[in-house]
């Protein structure tokens, strides 16, 4: 009974707070929605035009910039923190140019001094084995992501996954490269920009079996919610690499939708289905693409492409056949 009363009071308090926030965002005259005008520093009603608040403090910089170069010159802050660096980008880097603030070359004694400072700076940036481990792994993630053409958000996610694996002590008995590769593979799938296991293996320093084994282990131990790869997510990249038209992409997606409805995608490689759909769509669009070209961009054998190609066309014919 006491728990029920406490819960009711909590719900009433939360409802009162929500109502109070709604009242603050409404015009006192007409109950219209309030809009912030950052240029004039005012809060006005979007319906009746009443000025509710004025002379607001501007949290932005006091200077103006008209291009990216001028903005960089006037900015007095550094880059934002990032998980892709072992120290999150908060440490100091000493440039390697051996030049002073005016661009003049340093003398020999100054160069020796700066070299010693760089050496000690690097030592202080990685104070223990955990930071050295993290620095090596994040460097591997960045190298592989660059080779695969993955965006920055995938690198950030992969770095967070690796940090979690390191914090939860999942590395003993496994290589740094293996866990880093698995983290990148998982991050690419979570972001909807998957790469096949063969593509990942081509840029990694570990074997395919180790990547697959470590990936399953990391996903299970960290309880990562990763959906099965959608064949359609591979289509735009294959279409772009082959240089074919948007019509091919549209037809390929249509073929894959039909395959999913018929259930023939179950138990088959999504990369192979995507490659076969692009090949079939190119033929249906009267665009000249060979199985060998599709095989090169997808890293799938021509035999697999032929088999999936026939299955996709059969599914499409069954879907449009009169009943």
TrEMBL record:
Q: Where is the composition biased (Polar residues)?
A: 80-92
Annotated coiled-coil positions are: none
Q: Where is the TFIIB-type domain?
A: 23-53
* Keywords, sorted A to Z: Metal-binding, Repeat, Transcription, Transcription regulation, Zinc, Zinc-finger
Entries under Pfam families matching the protein:
TFIIB (PF00382), Zn_Ribbon_TF (PF08271)
What GO terms in the biological process aspect are recorded for it? DNA-templated transcription initiation
InterPro entries (UniProt xref)? Cyclin-like_dom, Cyclin-like_sf, TFIIB, TFIIB_arc, TFIIB_CS, TFIIB_cyclin, Znf_TFIIB
Alphabetical list of PROSITE patterns matching this protein: TFIIB (PS00782), ZF_TFIIB (PS51134)
Give one GO term, molecular function aspect. Answer: DNA-binding transcription factor activity
Origin superkingdom: Archaea
Q: Where is the composition biased (Basic and acidic residues)?
A: 1-26
Q: Where is this region: Disordered?
A: 1-29, 68-92
Q: Which residues bind Zn(2+)?
A: 27, 30, 45, 48
Start and stop residues of the sequence repeats: 139-222, 233-314
What does it do? Stabilizes TBP binding to an archaeal box-A promoter. Also responsible for recruiting RNA polymerase II to the pre-initiation complex (DNA-TBP-TFIIB).
Family of the protein in this entry: Belongs to the TFIIB family.
Q: What is this protein called?
A: Transcription initiation factor IIB
Classification lineage: Archaea, Methanobacteriati, Methanobacteriota, Stenosarchaea group, Halobacteria
């Amino acid at each position: 009974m006491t728990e029920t009363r406490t819960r009711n009071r909590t719900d009433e308090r939360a409802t009162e707070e929500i109502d109070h926030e709604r009242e603050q965002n409404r015009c006192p005259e007409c109950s219209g929605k309030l809009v912030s005008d950052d240029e004039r520093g005012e809060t006005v009603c979007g319906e009746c035009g009443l000025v509710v608040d004025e002379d607001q403090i501007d949290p932005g910089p006091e200077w103006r910039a008209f291009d990216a170069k001028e903005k960089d010159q006037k900015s007095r802050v550094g880059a934002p923190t990032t998980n892709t660096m072992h120290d999150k980008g908060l440490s100091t880097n000493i440039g390697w140019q051996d030049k002073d603030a005016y661009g003049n070359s340093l003398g020999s004694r100054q160069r020796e001094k700066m070299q010693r400072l760089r050496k000690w700076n690097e030592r202080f940036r990685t104070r223990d084995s955990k930071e050295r481990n993290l620095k090596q792994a994040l460097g591997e993630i960045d190298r592989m992501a660059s080779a695969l053409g993955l965006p920055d958000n995938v690198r950030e996610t992969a770095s967070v996954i690796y940090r979690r694996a390191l914090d939860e002590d999942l590395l003993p008995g496994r290589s740094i490269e293996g866990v880093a590769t698995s983290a990148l593979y998982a991050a690419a799938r979570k972001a909807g920009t998957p790469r096949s296991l063969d593509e990942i293996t081509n840029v990694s320093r570990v074997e395919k079996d180790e990547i697959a084994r470590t990936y399953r282990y990391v996903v299970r131990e960290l309880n990562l919610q990763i959906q099965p790869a959608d064949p359609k997510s591979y289509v735009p990249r294959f279409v772009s690499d082959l240089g074919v038209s948007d019509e091919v992409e549209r037809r390929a997606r249509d073929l894959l939708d039909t395959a999913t409805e018929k259930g023939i995608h179950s138990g088959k490689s999504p990369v192979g289905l995507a490659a076969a759909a692009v090949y079939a769509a190119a033929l249906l669009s009267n665009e000249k693409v060979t199985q060998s070209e599709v095989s090169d961009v997808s890293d799938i054998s021509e035999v697999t492409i032929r088999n999936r190609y026939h299955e996709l066309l059969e599914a499409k014919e069954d879907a449009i056949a009169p009943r």
